[in-house]
Amino acid sequence: MKKIVISTGGGDAPGLNAVIYAVTKSAHYRGWEVYGSHGGYKGLLDPDELVRLTPEMVEDITPTGGTILGSTNKGNPFAMPVENLAGEVQLRDVSDRVMQNFTRMGFSCHIAVGGDGSLEIAHRFATEKGMPVIGVPKTIDNDLQATHRTFGCDTAVATATDALDKLHSTAKSHDRVMVVEVMGRDSGWIAINSGISGCADVILIPEIPFNLDSVCNKINDNELHHKHYAIVVVAEGARAKDTEVIHKATEQCAVGRQEVLLGGVGEWVAQQIREKTGKDTRSLVLGHLQRGGSPTTFDRMLALRFGGAAVRLAEQEIFDHMVALAATDIIAVPLAEAIKGRKKVPLDSDKVLTAREIGICLGD
Ligand code: F6P
User: Fold this and answer.
1) Is pLDDT at 144 greater than 80 in this prediction?
2) What pLDDT, in 10s, does the model give residues 239-294?
3) Which helix (H) or strand (E) holds 333?
4) Which of 35, 95, 208, 337 is 20 to 30 A from 165 in CA distance terms?
5) Are 145 and 11 within one domain?
6) Where is the active site (predicted)?
7) Is the CB–ligand 1 distance for residue 110 below 6 Å?
8) What's the confidence (pLDDT) of residue 85?
9) 75 labelled ligand-binding
10) Strand partners of residue 324
11) Is position 139 annotated in a ligand binding site?
């Protein structure tokens, strides 16, 4: 009988509980035991943070948002923040302790559900400590390499699209430009998918540095066509071609234009549009709304399939791999492939082409 441990790392994404459900049930089907590690690796440092997962415990969690295991953004065992006696926080490598506990507790596999950061840590455990690890790709940003999709993104896109749908009527009623900032770090998947689905007039993504004049021309052009309102979707990582704006998520700083950071790039774009076109403009940041709520059917299915596939990999003892979505099937790919830099929207993709061909300005 195998005994496996599952952890969820990084920011939450809708579908995490569906993975936990599928892993628990698929392992139970094989007569294996499953444990959940609370707070990322905390359960492998402190047994109080470890919970035995049974089919009864996970019965109704699939449609729920968040993660029953809690997440962690500060839980890297290779550099764990630990407070010393003087109250100073120092980074300590506790990876050996994690590995010793893993072995002592008799685990035969660790299923690590996470984005690039968590999967990078998992890959280090596999290669440096010999931990049998299987990765499951999670992030609303969809910015992991080697998988067609990550779960969580579809729900985030649905939430953003719903917001855009609602903004059309108020924008139209008041002849306003509504600027909506969406998440995605330095990839534009949420922006381009929701912007196209939500019939935006302008979509600004990090992959295409934008020119404000193009944006304003599009808004002025709307006026010529008797459309007195506009919807502008701005990915949080978008940056202007003619300024040295560096997004907070990647650099935590902005060169030359501090105000971008203070208000967010969406607010800055809104201000610029107001100044350059004279249009009444409002901005909003969708923020963590995009991470919440029940996963869409697509995300649920993907997360459930990923969970099932991860357990099949454990059975076949294929470690240091990540389950991934190919054209139609779940495949195994080396974790190393998954963390080889962030995946961008290809500029020749049909989405970019479609956006242009249906009259959406991409800011270039
Ligand atoms: O990676 C997911 C994500 O939601 C990004 O889109 C966003 O930039 C970031 O996490 C927000 O992180 P936090 O929850 O720490 O504010």
Assistant:
1) yes
2) 998 765 544 444 444 444 444 445 689 999 999 999 999 999 999 999 999 999 99
3) strand 330-334
4) 208
5) yes
6) 141
7) no
8) 87
9) yes
10) 331
11) yes
Identify which of 118, 143, 185 to mutate to test ligand 1's pocket (most ligand atoms within 8 A of the CB). Answer: 185
Measuring CA to CA, which residue among 103, 101, 123 is closest to residue 112? 123
Q: Enumerate the active-site residues.
A: 141
Report the distance separating Cα 147 and Cα 276, nearest Å. Answer: 41
The CATH number of residue 171's host domain is 3.40.50.460
Strand partners, 53: 34
Distance CA 174, CA 229 (A): 8
321 is in an annotated binding site: no
Q: Is 190 in the pocket of ligand 1 (CB under 6 A)?
A: no
Query: Whole-prediction pTM value?
Result: 0.91
**Coil, strand, or helix at residue 195?**
helix
Average pLDDT over residues 120-143: 98
Query: 351 and 205 in one domain?
Result: yes
CA-to-CA dists, residue 90 to 56, 71, 289, 323, angstroms: 40, 21, 33, 34
In the reported structure, the alpha carbon of residue 10 is separated from the centroid of ligand 1 by a whole-number distance in angstroms of 9
Atom of ligand 1 nearest to the CA of 290: 4
User: Can you read off the two tokens belonging to residue 90?
Assistant: 């120092």
Domain ranges, residue 125: 3-151+293-338
Cβ neighbours, 10 Å, residue 199: 14
* 350 in the same domain as 251: yes
Question: Cα(11) to centroid of ligand 1, in Å?
Answer: 6
Ligand 1 atom 9 nearest Cα: 185
363 within some domain: no
